[in-house]
Amino acid sequence: MSLQLAMAELAAELALFAALGFLLFSLDDLLVDIIYFARRLWRAMTVYRLHRPGDARSLTDGAATGWMVVMIPAWDESAVIGAMLRSTLHSFDHPDYTLLVGYYRNDPATRLAIEAVSDPRVMAIEVSHDGPTTKADCLNELYAFLLRHEAASGRQARAVVLHDAEDLVHPLELRLFDRLTARAGMVQLPVVPMPDHTSHWVAGHYCDEFAESHGKELVVREAVGASIPLAGVGCAISRGAIARLAEAHGGRPFAGGSMTEDYEMGLRLGALGERTIFVRLPESPGQRGVVASRGHFPSTLGAAVRQKARWLGGIAFAGWDRLGWSGGLGERWFRLRDRRGPFAALLLLAGYLSGLLWAQLWFAAQLGAPLPPQPSPLLSGLLQINFALLLWRILMRVGFTSHVYGFGEGLAAVPRIVTANLIAILATGRALFLHAGGGPKQWDKTDHVFPAATGAARS
Question: What pTM, to 2 d.p., does this model score?
Answer without folding.
Answer: 0.90
